[in-house]
């Protein structure tokens, strides 16, 4: 009997090892990788450049001494994030909140898809017969563990939301939609708009820097939770300019389709980061649906990445197009800024312009100077160039709420358009002249601009 058992074990080992590798070390093969250039982005090849002031610091700020740094390859948005693109984010957050509230109320009143009305928006787990074994396990073991008891439950996104009041299916649906609009007593001129204070995006992320500095921390100590209001602060158009008539920009700039391809403004550094988190979540949800590997996270560029990309491969240039002049050989301005001692219209623009205006730099990036200044993922410290690394330098201190903005804007003089000029704003501030663009890490190390 013992011989039979021993023989069975030997056969099991032989059969288990017979995987076609002939006993050789061939590595573990993962899923097939499908590299793709993200939509609307340009590949910025990695390389070295001289970061900082290449000529005299006329403002005598002395916060950007020249130093040679190296950055890895990455993708960057060809344009600043537009109103249209940011509205996709705001709309997704709004619709997700509406669907969640509909599902919760359907649960409370005991309605299911068979009942129609609000029941059609019930959580998909009300029909446990159609759930996978894993989904059933997760529901049985983890439901009710969060603050509301509904965390992790799937929404039914197969049914379209109804926005026309005349088509609401029942009073429960009407009740939910009523809570998403401003109170009736606060409406005016017959307009009852969305209560944008309800548009909040919740997300979590792993604080890698914190985890790396203290290896005694538990994973739960470095998983951070955030909730951010996502609607742009349109009152920035009024608040930024005292004794100035900018009400039309406040009323129309973000929502009206006439401004759809213009850069979004009135977005804080925190909101810009929330947008990056959502864009990653949105893309990876699609990747999962087609059984593809997740993509790298979208994020704000570091200060070094932004300056490297803005230079477009030109060393010691003053502006993204070279320089040192802001006009071309025909006397036309090359960017949207405040030229000629305040003649805003001299560059053919009064406020912002469409995101694909003017000529792109040699990396095919538009408006890296002027139009709107751009948030980057760095905290402002006048001395940061002195102590930051020379490879992929990044200085982002969570205790320092002064965040760097780069590139200058439609209301700035030419000095702030220079690729080496630094400025800052507080992380929770929103301005009518600050927007952002995102980047994504390139997979691999072989794309460099100055290989020998």
Radius of gyration, CA atoms, in whole angstroms: 27 Å
Range of helix content? 25-40%
Cross-sheet strand order for the largest sheet: 1-4-12-7
Percent range for β-strand residues? 5-15%
- CATH fourth-tier homologous superfamily of the largest domain: paralog of FGE (formylglycine-generating enzyme)
Q: What would the average pLDDT be, to the nearest integer?
A: 90
Summed up, the domain count is 2
Can you describe this structure in just a few lines?
The chain has 452 residues and is α+β, with helices and mostly antiparallel strands. 25% of the residues lie in helices and 12% in strands. The protein has helices at residues 2-17, 83-108, 133-142, 171-179, 208-213, 219-222, 236-239, 247-252, 269-289, 303-311, 384-387, and strands at residues 41-44, 47-51, 67-71, 74-77, 200-206, 223-229, 298-299, 373-379, 402-406, 423-426, 434-435, 439-441.
What does this 3D model show about the protein?
Residues 40-439 form the Sulfatase-modifying factor enzyme-like domain. The protein has 452 residues and is α+β, with helices and mostly antiparallel strands. It folds into 2 domains: 49-82 and 230-452, paralog of FGE (formylglycine-generating enzyme); 84-198, no CATH class. The chain is built from 11 helices and 12 strands. The strands form 4 sheets. It has a 4-stranded antiparallel beta sheet. A 4-stranded mixed beta sheet has the order 10-9-8-11. The protein has a two-stranded antiparallel sheet with strand order 2-3. Helix 2 crosses helix 4. The chain is globular, with a radius of gyration of 27 Å.
């Amino acid at each position: 009997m013992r011989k039979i058992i021993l023989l069975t074990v030997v056969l099991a080992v032989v059969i288990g090892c017979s995987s076609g590798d002939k006993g050789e070390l061939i590595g573990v093969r993962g899923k097939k990788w499908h590299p793709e250039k993200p939509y609307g982005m340009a590949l910025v090849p990695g390389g070295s450049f001289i970061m900082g002031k290449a000529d005299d610091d006329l403002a005598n700020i002395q916060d950007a001494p020249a130093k040679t740094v190296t950055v890895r390859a990455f993708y960057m948005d060809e344009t600043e994030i537009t109103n249209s693109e940011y509205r996709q984010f705001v709309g997704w957050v709004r619709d997700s909140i509406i669907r969640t509230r509909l599902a919760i109320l359907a649960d409370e009143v005991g309605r299911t898809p068979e009942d129609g009305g609000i029941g059609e928006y019930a959580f998909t787990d009300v029909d446990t017969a159609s759930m996978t074994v894993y989904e059933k396990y997760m529901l049985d073991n983890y439901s009710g563990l969060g603050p509301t008891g509904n965390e992790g439950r799937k929404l039914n996104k197969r049914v379209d939301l109804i926005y026309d009041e005349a088509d609401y299916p029942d009073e429960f649906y009407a009740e939910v939609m009523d809570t998403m609009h401003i109170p009736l007593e606060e409406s005016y001129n017959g307009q009852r708009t969305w209560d944008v204070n309800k548009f909040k995006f919740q997300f979590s992320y792993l604080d890698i820097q914190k985890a790396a500095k203290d290896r005694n921390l538990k994973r739960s100590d470095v998983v951070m939770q955030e909730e951010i209001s996502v609607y742009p602060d349109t009152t920035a158009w009024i608040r930024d300019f005292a004794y100035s008539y900018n009400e039309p920009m406040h009323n129309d700039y973000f929502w009206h389709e006439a401004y759809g391809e213009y850069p979004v403004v009135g977005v804080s550094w925190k909101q810009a980061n929330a947008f990056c988190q959502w864009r990653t979540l949105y893309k990876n949800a699609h990747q999962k649906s087609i059984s593809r590997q997740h993509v790298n996270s979208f994020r704000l560029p570091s200060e070094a990445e932004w300056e490297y990309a803005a230079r477009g491969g030109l060393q010691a240039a003053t502006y993204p197009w070279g320089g040192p002049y802001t006009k071309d050989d025909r006397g036309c301005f090359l960017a949207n800024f405040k030229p000629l001692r305040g003649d805003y219209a001299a560059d053919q623009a009064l406020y912002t312009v469409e995101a694909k205006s003017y000529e792109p730099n040699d990396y095919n990036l538009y408006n890296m100077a002027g139009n709107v200044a751009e948030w980057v993922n760095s905290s402002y410290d006048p001395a940061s160039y002195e102590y930051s690394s020379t490879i992929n330098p990044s200085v982002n201190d969570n205790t320092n709420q002064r965040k760097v903005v780069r590139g200058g804007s439609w209301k700035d003089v030419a000095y702030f358009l220079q690729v080496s000029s630094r400025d800052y704003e507080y992380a929770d501030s929103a301005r009518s002249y600050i927007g952002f663009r995102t980047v994504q890490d390139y997979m691999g190390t072989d794309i460099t601009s100055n290989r020998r």
